[in-house]
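TEACHING EXERCISE
Course module: macromolecular assemblies
Task: Read the component lines below, then compare them to the predicted structure of the full complex.
Student: A.B.
Group: 4
Components provided:
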Amino acid sequence: MRTKEVGRPLDRVDGRLKVTGQARYTAEFPVEQVAYGVLVRSTIARGRILAYGTKAAEQTPGVLAVLTHENAPKRHPTKEFDPSDKEPSASPTTILVLNTDEVSWHGQPLVVVIAETLDQAEEAASLVRITYAPAEELAKLSMLDQKTEAFVPKKVLNEKPEVTQGNAEEALAAAPVKIDHTYTTPPYNHNPIEAHNTLAYWEGDDQLTVYDSTQYIFGVRKMLSEMFALKEENVRVVSAFVGGAFGSKGRAWPHVGLTAMAAKVVGRPVKIDLPRKDMFYMVGGRTPSEQRVALGADAEGKLQAVVHTGLTASSTSNTFAEHFSFVTRHLYASPNFLIQQKLVRLDMVPNTFMRAPGEGIGTFALESAMDELAYALNMDPIELRLRNEPEKDPTMHVPFSSRHLKECFALGAEKFGWHQRNPQPRGRREGPWLIGQGTASAFYPANKRSAEVKVKLSIDGTALLQSATHEMGTGTATVQAQNAADQLGLSVEKVRFEYGDSLLPKANGSYGSTTTITVGGAVELACEDLKRQLLRLAVKHPSSVLHEANYDDLEARDNGLFYKDNPTRGETYAVILAREGKENLEAQASFPPFLKEKLEEMAYSFQSFGAQFCEVRVHEETGEVLVSRWVGVYDCGTILNDKTARSQFLGSVTMGIGMALWEETHWDLRDGRIPNASLSEYHVPVAAGLPRIEVYSLGIPDPHTPLGAHGAGEIAVTGAAAAIANAVYHATGKRIRDLPITPDKLL
Amino acid sequence: MRAFTYTQATDASAALHAALQNPEAKYIGGGTNLVDLMREEVERPNEVIDINALPFSQIEVLPDGGVRLGALARNSHTANHPLVRQRYPVLAQAMLSAASPQLRNLATNAGNLLQRTRCYYFYDTTAPCNKRQPGSGCAAIHGVNRIHAILGTSEQCIATHPSDMAVALAALEAVVQVQGANGTRRIAMEEFHRLPGDHPEQDTTLGRDELITSIDLPALPSTANSLYFKVRERPSFAFALVSVAAVLELEGEQIKNVRLALGGVAHKPWRARTAEEALLGKPATAENFRQAAEAELQTAIAYEHNAFKIELAKRTIVRALLTLAERQLLA
Amino acid sequence: MSFSIDQILRGDIPRVERPPAADPSLVPVRLRVNGQDHDLQLEPRVSLLDALREFIGLTGTKKGCNQGACGACTVLVEGERVNSCLTFAIMHQGKDITTIEGLGTPDALHPLQAAFIEHDGYQCGYCTPGQICSAVAMLKEVEHGDASHVTSDLMATDVQLTDEEIRERMSGNVCRCGAYLGIVDSIRAVYEQQKGQ
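Instructor-supplied answer key:
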């Protein structure tokens, strides 16, 4: 394929609407007669409702309905999201709130108040007085306190919870150089700036339209169709502009079903836009973790034993064990592995995927440990990593589809000036500031999901691309238009991409950095089908210059099909279509093509890699940490758009810095309250205190993926916290194994 | 938010009269704190009296050489006023380190002094809180109290005052000018905010029948130097973990005059009198600064998550004083 | 009231004002937004943000936290940037209010809007209107010589607009996508352009 558009740093196709305030996000559709819903949260973590005390709320002017489990229409149970389902529901939990008087977490929505205006609904909600019968058994709120009840779950995503190769503990004991430490990470919340919100209305009893801020349209449709016993095609889910997602919008949290239910009860459109506080209580975040990493090496730094075990939490109503151990299964060679994940169940809002789930926290532990081992060996940490490059995937025992970690470190070290670094801790200072440098590997899988794409070519030389995928700022809308333009030999302005609506061909959820390959692969297949159809039309006609052409002789360019070896010979699509009297032609394709995919998946290990470098300044007296430099190099295959991919890398590093230094969701372990449930007390990164982050991409195509691409939305979160912790050690001589690295830990 | 009636006061006596008529009324200036508290149901006025038309927005030189900051002047305008930037750098720095530019554009000077604590539990009406609901208990004492006070706490309340501006004003020995139904009075900054004691619901000594009209700054000796040093968990747009406002005047290497106030550690801007007394007349050395800081923090009490603030406060005092001393010795 | 995906992605959704309700607790409020007067019937408790979004139908101004902690709701009142979520609409009668819709349109972009596109100063776009309104006012503040927390010399009236200065001055606007570098570069580009003129 000729690439004219792919790779170009094209401006976002939705940019003009976004910068002028004309892009309509979920809560912004001017639907007539819309009413406003507000939810009332539980203030206990476990128990039953004794009484709702809704009288004052019902009497508040403007109130249309006050719904509790006593008067709400019962909904049907829905299946919890299961990654092994072909088309999983987006439901994060098995609990149907308002179907039950049972309270399962602090913050569970218990009452829906619907009113004419938002202020009326909020006021009425504030007047609800619920009385509870707390459970006799104390609520389980602390992961560490519940350690004795930890169990090995059946699966961790679709993988085994344990991997044992050789005897890692024995090899560890025998290793001449070893480290063995525990690393902990706190709960985090995604906090997209557009809160989760839903606008729903019914037409008749069986037609439901839902505008929802989601990164998984068909999962929302499936959940709602189950919940309200509707045919799937009778539910329309629209999610065109999404104001950030980062994983939290991969699930349809309780407010989604409640909005649809409320709209049915009041017979009007209803919208629920979660207040920021509810974003902490009704939307799951990232689990806390406690991880042990023990590494044993020979004197040359070759790993002999790798142990990575630990604990995460899920709720009593979901089963997501965050896969912190996956990175260790693929990153370094070792004859002996002991990998095990355990889970405890807490009375908390179901946890979920947050940008770079698993690897985000797993790399903090593993890559901090690698740095500790490098110091124990008195070896450069890059050298240590290079000495443990595996020939094949060390636990899957198949080749990597593409792996260029060495090149990432080489380029990164050069850009950063790594080799000028004196490895001695506390070696550099400027006034009260201690300066240190650290590095870490980045790692994230290059997975695929499924998508269908329809492409329609018109005689006027334009193409319409359709797929119900999502654009949360990832750049999908732009890069897939570029992709289709190249596949069809059109300029990108001639391609229009429609996404974000369940009326379009089905696509899986946009998470796990899978959309670029998945939708990209489907675009490729649909365009190929279309080109083959066009050729079949042309070869019928002896007068056509393509009369005797084979598909493989041709390439798409200049709005038509032309011979590869004779650039002037060919026909434009307009000529081909006009000859047939057709206005347009369409094709539709699914990715992955089932059999081929299955074989490839088994034959290779598909992973992305990277090298993170940073410099920190630590105030010796106050313990404040600033990141003063950053260089990241990533191995994500072909880059479809330099501009949008770069922003994905920059944004990921920024989130990684937040995770390392500032962010933490506090849990009050007495009752499950989240004291800092606000953006003023949960500190997401702001512009101040960030360096001019430098990011590079190797751009080496993966020979086994569509376009040679990998997803690029999460890799740069991974390794970031470890690089910072390693730099803090270099600066201060103090190893922080507990995130976030706040001033108190360095005093 | 509870529904309310909205009235506009055109002069101070009308405003005072309206508030006296209705005990459930609240004045609104910038509203940055009040609106938030109303939305959280912490404040539930049934009447909001807009006082923005009152003539208290001026910033001007006083006959005694000090500067008057109008109660209704915005934080951003105050911080950037040439009189403040040139004469009271500690105040400009404190104000510019607070909140965000957008908030500073709305927030008024009087409102800054009257802002309520950022204690998590005060802000959450489903938690017990003696400040919000006297007698209901304190959820913070045994709760998540990382951001809470270490000095002057009581068994009733360990909240801190969140203002940066007020910390600088304490070090500058500002005077709050107040107009009441029966005339005007002056309240020294040190007397304006209270320690919680048995009445944490009372943040200040301002009466219900009183309005702040201005904050008056006495002149600083031209040889004094001042600065604001703030330690926070995020490099901008975050409340202080610990902050120090310091004014220092040396004579040779001897400390002729020193004023210190701490933020983030107490229910009020904490005037560090003990440290000041320990330093007067002594040489400006790191050891003396450290000893003074130790003396000041002697009475500090740590709770489960905030013990680090004691050491942090000491170090912050030393850093602020060292910076000022070096500056003066260099000059 | 059904909108097609084609309409939505083209930005072809009309602005619709909420029809006034027959409610005796409402009071007339006249707001001048982007040079146009809007006569509304509001409860006094309606925030300026909700008045814009829910009553006037100008949804370009965003609700992120509704408590002044994210800056997504930033608008200009008499040219100064403020959080529209923390102030009541009724307090802003007779003032000039400018929102993102008043700065430029898709066919006639404000220089900062164009720069945000060129430098990719956004991803999801949700905080973007607030960022741009904030940046417009910020550049005026710089012209006026206002200091920031990172200004080393408070006596100087000529601001050296370093990256550090831009970052500090824009820290009232949170971008969770982390597009800060693009935001800084967009603002710098427009600043240099204005200085050159």
